[in-house]
Design brief:
alpha/beta, Serine Threonine Protein Phosphatase 5, Tetratricopeptide repeat, six-stranded mixed sheet, three-stranded parallel sheet, 32 helices, 11 strands, 59% helix
């Protein structure tokens, strides 16, 4: 291994492998911490190496020090899942072995890829490439390559690890220099990856396009297409992103990541039918391909389909899928449980039944699992939190109990807890405001030093005290987020009279931005008629933003008011001939039997988006 300042990781790495290797070679490129001392405790042979911004040279120096028949290459932030399997693998006497690498990223997700990490010593195998170095197999004829049966666990892509080592800035400098020296397809591909990490999507797009143009169907091409599509999408060019990934899906029919990303773009464009087909294909083929995010061949794609069913009001279908997901992943996939809570709330399933169902399928048997479940229910502000606390007879801090009381609608007990607190944590600021609004007690806001703007506090106090409020005077994101939080929680708590009072204030205001913001929230929570009411007068104004017209047209389409929806979409289509608008007009013209107009849109699509025209499911227009 080559290392630098890895005292936080190297001990764990060597501890897991010490009984399965004959020697440990550690090449240090300039550590200023205790890395070398820790390595020596494990009887490692430690060599100093002057860093020259070239990973392949350092790697080749490290393998030159090895004396054993086979060499295992690891990084300090990696560990082996099944070291015993290594012994069995090398009995096959291959020249090198591909090992699956499970890369953990922040947010509890991970993705896998394969790389050669075991090589036979003294047969001339070397690393090439200054960054993202790899074993050069093309220079060796008749090389026998085996598949390893262990897994490498890699933690280096976690946000805290990445920033601790300043990897982003370092890697970009190295790959820029390497690409200038050797403008290969692989270097341009890695340059694009580094630009994505730096969120420079314009230059990432240029690099990926160059790589694709000069490459020859490389092993990393599927990932290149995925990342090129992502870069285009991040720049607002979603139709181009769709075209790239759609073409990729025709070439790489068994690459789960490409098919999944195609589904997410269809979903973003409102084409839920094609999105579901993509997610179902992912489930059918499982997790295959060059690089695959864990779960997209199973529970994550099921979750995406369940979310679409939920959005369409198909709660029974969503419920059954979510049951499968939770049985499969228990508390380890929080999004599945959150969606389950949302579906059961919208379907008006009694909270007692929800609790019994959730606990029976979660099968919580460990303290860590219970803690995860309680944390999830707390952060989601679920009415289920207090019943689960009572079920397991656990004691939580007073602050958590206050939140549990609030969302079980025991407002008086919640207020007692809040009034006991001398300092209000920022994480519960909105909960305190909600409680004040529900109890009509503005003093709850005044008596605590809430971590929000004074103007926002004054406006919220006026709302609670039923004084005149001019929402047009306050346009901050902070205020919008507070109002949005109140609307969401009032819906969940079924405090409909309180919700109505708040929405009346928003309705009579001249704040279009706030109306649009809250309309979207109402729509996503099933209150489509109310969402429509908030915007009905605004959409007829001359200089209204296009996104508001589009959102309102979608509302009208959802409720079956097709002619008015067509009028608005045609208004948008004069300046925006995107796939999304074309698709909506095709559906609307088909539903209203306006076949001449449908043919015109089909001709436009064939001319402007020929690839997407081919992929459109014309037979399913309705």
């Amino acid at each position: 291994m080559i290392v630098r300042n890895e005292e936080e990781n190297i001990g764990e790495c060597l501890e897991g492998i010490k009984n399965f290797v004959d020697e440990v070679i550690v090449v240090d490129t300039g550590s200023t911490d205790n890395t070398k001392e820790i390595a020596e405790r494990y009887s490692a042979k430690v060599y100093d190496y002057e860093w020259n911004n070239d990973f392949s040279r350092a790697r080749n120096y490290s393998i030159a020090q090895a004396t054993s028949e086979y060499i295992l290459i690891l990084d300090a932030d990696e560990s082996i899942s099944d070291p015993e399997a290594l012994k069995n693998d090398i009995k096959l006497n291959k020249d090198c072995y591909l090992i699956g690498i499970n890369n953990f990223i922040s947010g509890g997700q991970s993705f896998t890829h394969k790389a050669i990490r075991i090589i036979k010593n003294n047969i001339g195998l070397k690393f090439i490439n200054e960054l993202h170095e790899y074993i050069d197999t093309k220079s060796h004829l008749n090389l026998k390559i085996g598949e390893g049966h262990t897994k490498i666990i890699h933690r280096g892509y976690l946000d805290e690890e990445f920033s601790r080592k300043n990897k982003s800035e370092r890697n970009l400098k190295i790959i820029k220099r390497a690409t200038k020296k050797n403008p290969s397809a692989y270097n341009y591909y890695n340059l694009g990856r580094c630009f994505i990490t730096a969120k420079d999507y314009y230059n990432a797009t240029k690099a990926f396009k160059t790589s694709y143009e000069i490459s020859n169907n490389e092993v990393y091409t599927p990932d290149l297409l995925n990342k090129l599509s992502l870069s285009l999408k991040e720049q607002g060019e979603i139709d181009k992103a769709l075209e790239i990934i759609y073409n990729g899906s025709l070439i790489f029919t068994q690459e789960t990541e490409i098919i999944y990303n195609l589904g997410t773009i269809y979903e973003e464009l409102g084409d839920s039918g094609n999105a579901v087909i993509c997610y179902q294909k992912c489930i059918e083929i499982g997790e295959r391909g060059y690089q695959v995010t864990k779960g997209i061949g199973s529970y994550i794609s099921k979750y995406r389909i369940a979310r679409i069913h939920n959005s369409n009001g198909e709660y029974f279908l969503a419920f059954n899928l979510l049951i499968d997901i939770i049985k499969e992943e228990t508390v380890n996939f929080p999004l599945g449980i959150i969606e389950f809570l949302d579906v059961t709330r919208k379907a008006n399933i009694p909270i007692t039944n929800v609790k019994e169902t959730l606990l029976s399928i979660c099968n919580v048997t460990k303290v860590e699992e219970l803690q995860l479940l309680l944390d999830l229910l707390y952060h989601h502000r679920s009415a289920l939190l207090l019943p689960v606390i009572d079920h397991f007879k656990v004691k939580l801090p007073r602050l958590n109990m206050g939140i549990a009381f609030l969302y079980k609608k025991n407002y008086i007990e919640a207020a007692k807890v809040i009034k006991e607190l001398k300092i209000i944590e920022p994480s519960i600021t909105n909960d305190v405001i909600l409680l004040g609004y529900l109890l009509e007690e503005s003093n709850i806001l005044k008596d605590h030093h809430l971590n929000i703007n004074k103007k926002t506090i004054r406006t919220l106090t006026s709302i609670i005290d039923k004084k005149e409020v001019d929402f047009a005077l306050i346009n901050t994101d902070e205020f919008f987020e507070v109002i949005d939080f109140l609307v969401v929680q009032l819906i969940r708590l079924k405090e409909l009279s309180k919700l109505e009072d708040l929405l009346k204030l928003i309705l009579i205001s001249n704040n279009i931005k706030l109306k649009t913001f809250i309309s979207s929230t109402l729509y996503n929570n099933g209150l489509r008629d109310v969402a429509k009411q908030l915007l009905s007068q605004e959409v007829e104004k001359e200089h209204i933003p296009v996104n508001i017209i589009e959102f309102y047209a979608e509302l009208l389409m959802g409720e079956g008011t097709y002619e008015d929806s067509i009028r608005l979409y045609e208004r948008i289509y004069k300046t925006n001939k995107s796939y999304k608008i074309q698709k909506q007009l095709c559906n609307l013209y088909s539903r209203t039997s306006q076949f001449n107009r449908l043919e015109q849109i089909k001709n436009d699509m064939k001319e402007l988006n020929p690839i997407l025209y081919t992929g459109f499911r014309w037979s399913e227009l309705r």
